[in-house]
Amino acid sequence: MRKKNLKVPLIILVSILLLLFAAWNIAWILLTNNRYEDFLKAVPKSKFGNHIIRKDDYVYGVNRPTYLSFTGNLSVNNSKEGKLLIIWPLMNGKYEYGIMIKKKDKVYQVHLNHDLTPIKKNSLIEQRIAEDLKLEVTELLKRAKLVWDLE
Asked: How far apart (Å, rounded) are the C-alpha atoms in residues 111 and 74?
């Protein structure tokens, strides 16, 4: 008789967990589809199944968030000049940016917030790199805004 009494709470607990998991999946589908829909329309799927287009020596790409993740990215790349801008659309409507710029034999990488200042406020090196590369970042962001509505 005792075993039957334990089965009922266990079934209820498992049912609640399954409902929560289903709700999380539905929320993920709705939020990511809503956030990435316009980005995906601007960069249609290629014959290889990924969202990449080439315009004027630049490659524009969209990576949707992976399953149950809310982090995907947009990218603008000019490999001839060694310039790459990664844009992370945040669910709150803002963006974070990452830059990779190759100058001579060095590659510089900086993670920037929505106003193009380094995320690591206490890193003097990253602040200096961001200031030195402001022109390149602005150029890449301008090109990204021609493809996607980033406002």
From this structure: 14
